[in-house]
């Protein structure tokens, strides 16, 4: 057994294999709604928390939705992109190796991603965290298989956005060169066809102080965005199929921006009551 496998075995103890609400019904097929399942939190007697994965192409907003759900459910949002950035900014053992990989524009290997993830989970275990919402992982079948040996993922949410809107949003991204704030100047308003509602995504405009200092990332050109999308689609299909075959994939077509999508996502996840309770106690 190599070092990585040993680490993963060790990690199994960190992630308790206790049953989770969705595992009770995993035999049942579902495609767009979990409304028949009852409130997830009441099906979590062991307090294991949800073990969810977010899939979705770059720019779809999965970090935003994963982060909102993590706050709502009180489980950590673990983004492998953040883990890589944090390690790079640290003086940790992998920082130098990572810098070399990233500076050469190479993909970070499964082994490095796994060791960062394990470190993060072990750190969480010391703080008695329960559950997790993973974002950016697994990226490959191999990662998905390893993850399966470590913990039972309850649900994989595949966020999808119509391509014209996605492209507009990716091309509309702006950063404030002064404070680093992220904005989006694209205003998407696509007329609904065949009686369907219009597709609306409002821009995220900067405050006056930032407005004159906006810059576009060099890699946010139409050509690069389309290529990024194509690569993502090719890489993600096997991972989607992996979870689809296990009855764990929830396909979710974003119906617009956050105001349009968030309530629908909660509905699909059967978390509407949960959100109401949170709002009432806030
Ligand atoms: Zn600014």
Automatic annotation (TrEMBL):
EC top class, as a word: transferase
Keyword Nucleotide-binding carried by entry: yes
Keywords, comma-separated and alphabetical: Kinase, Nucleotide-binding, Signal, Transferase
The EC number(s) this enzyme carries: 2.7.4.3
Signal sequence, renumbered to the chain: 1-27
GO molecular function: AMP kinase activity; ATP binding
Designated name of the protein: adenylate kinase
Species of provenance: Musa acuminata subsp. malaccensis
């Amino acid at each position: 057994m190599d070092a990585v496998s040993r680490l993963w075995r060790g990690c199994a103890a960190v992630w308790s294999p206790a049953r989770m609400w969705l595992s009770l019904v995993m035999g049942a097929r579902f495609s767009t709604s979990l409304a028949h399942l009852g409130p997830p939190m009441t099906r979590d007697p062991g307090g294991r928390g949800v073990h969810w994965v977010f899939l979705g192409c770059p720019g779809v907003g999965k970090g935003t939705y994963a982060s909102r759900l993590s706050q709502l459910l009180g489980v950590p949002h673990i983004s492998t992109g953040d883990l890589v950035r944090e390690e790079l900014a640290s003086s940790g053992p992998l920082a130098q190796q990572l810098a070399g990989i990233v500076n050469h524009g190479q993909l970070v290997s499964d082994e490095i991603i796994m060791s960062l993830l394990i470190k993060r989970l072990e750190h969480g275990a010391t703080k008695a965290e329960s559950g997790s919402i993973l974002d950016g992982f697994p990226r490959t079948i191999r990662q998905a298989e390893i993850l399966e040996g470590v913990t039972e993922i309850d649900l994989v949410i595949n966020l999808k956005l119509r391509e014209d809107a996605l492209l507009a949003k990716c091309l509309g991204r702006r950063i404030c060169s002064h404070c680093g704030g992220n904005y989006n100047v694209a205003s998407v308003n696509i007329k609904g066809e065949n009686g369907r509602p219009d597709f609306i995504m409002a821009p995220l405009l900067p405050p006056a102080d930032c407005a004159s200092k906006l810059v576009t990332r060099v890699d946010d050109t139409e050509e690069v965005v389309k290529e990024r999308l194509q690569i993502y689609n090719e890489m993600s299909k096997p991972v989607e199929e992996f979870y689809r075959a296990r009855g764990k994939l929830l396909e979710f077509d974003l119906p617009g921006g956050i105001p349009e999508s968030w309530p629908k996502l909660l509905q699909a996840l059967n978390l509407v009551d949960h959100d109401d309770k949170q709002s009432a106690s806030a």
